[in-house]
Amino acid sequence: MTVRQPGRFVAYLRVSTDGQGRSGLGLEAQRQAVAAYVAQAGGEVVAEFQEVESGKRVDRPQLAAALASCRTRRAVLVIAKLDRLARNARFLLSVVEGSGEAGVVFCDLPRVPAGPVGKFLVTQMAAVAELEAGLISQRTRAALAVAKARGVRLGNPSPTPATAAMAAAARQARSRQVKARAADVLAVVRQVQAEGASSLRAIATALHEQGVRTPTGKEEWSAAQVRRLLAHAGPVHSPGSPALPPPL
Questions:
Q1: How far is residue 93's CA from residue 103's CA, in Å, rounded to a whole number?
Q2: Neighbours of 77 (CB within 10 A)
Q3: Is 94 labeled as catalytic in the residue annotation?
Q4: Which residue among the candidates 16, 94, 199, 222 is catalytic per the annotation?
Q5: List of E strands, the chain
Q6: Smallest Cα–Cα separation from 80: which of 22, 117, 29?
Q7: What's the pLDDT at 123?
Q8: DSSP for 106-170?
Q9: Which residues contact 233 (CB under 8 A, 6 or more apart)?
């Protein structure tokens, strides 16, 4: 737990949901906190491990990899906040003991001294975090029980006719947008064909090189996408237009 200057740090970042992981907001906030802490300590982050997993789970592959990296590099495990690691005192202590001789630091807590005193302090802090998590869970269950007693339907409610109609209208609007976009793209495809592209792959490559997006807005084109676009467009009737390439 004592950091030698300059020190080597292994960062462990965790969010609880896939949505948080995809947005990157929770991870980025943790990364900034770690970077500020390490810079103030005059050290460097030699490895970073990210995990999208509930804090209640103890089987975390990325955490295990981070601990192994700490032991092999003799680096400090640095975590933005205590609750990003765990709210369970026993699990937290096992992580501290498994991190190697350099130990663990939390950016939102004072420096923990090495030795048995440090382990005691970490255990007490984890116990407080565990108590807080238990109280939050208890209050949530009580609030849900009261709501259920009042007749409130819990869970994901079934869509009302109004919301179903709105969803259908949104799908129709999206379909119209895709069709309009397809018509615009088809004009470019005809031009590409006129310039000599004679296969679906050649057309797809030309569209990608010109920065033309698919009707659904994707940047990458495939031969199958070109085939579907041409199939929906139907045969070319204007004289002098090149014939459609056969499916590959």
A1: 11
A2: 27
A3: no
A4: 16
A5: 8-15, 44-52, 76-79, 104-106
A6: 29
A7: 72
A8: ETTSPPPPSSHHHHHHHHHHHHHHHHHHHHHHHHHHHHHHHHHHTTPPPSSPPPPHHHHHHHHHH
A9: 182, 186
Summarize the confidence of residues 66-83 as an average pLDDT: 86
| pLDDT above 80 (res 96) | no
- The tens digit of pLDDT for each residue in 133-168 reads 677 778 888 888 887 787 777 766 666 676 677 778
**Contact between 78 and 47 (Cβ < 8 Å):** no
For residues 14 and 50, the answer to whether their CB atoms sit within 8 Å is yes
Secondary structure of residue 33 in the 3-state scheme: helix
Alpha carbon of 202 to those of 40, 169, 188: distances in Å? 54, 37, 13
Residues 158 and 164: their CA atoms lie apart, in Å, by: 9
Rounded Cα distance, 68 and 62, in Å: 10
216-246 pLDDT tens trace: 888 788 989 888 888 877 654 444 444 444 4
**112 within 8 A of 2, measured Cβ to Cβ:** no
Name the token pair of 47. Answer: 């490895």
**Confidence grade of residue 182 (pLDDT, cut at 50, 70, 90):** confident
**One-letter amino acid for residue 232 of the chain:** H
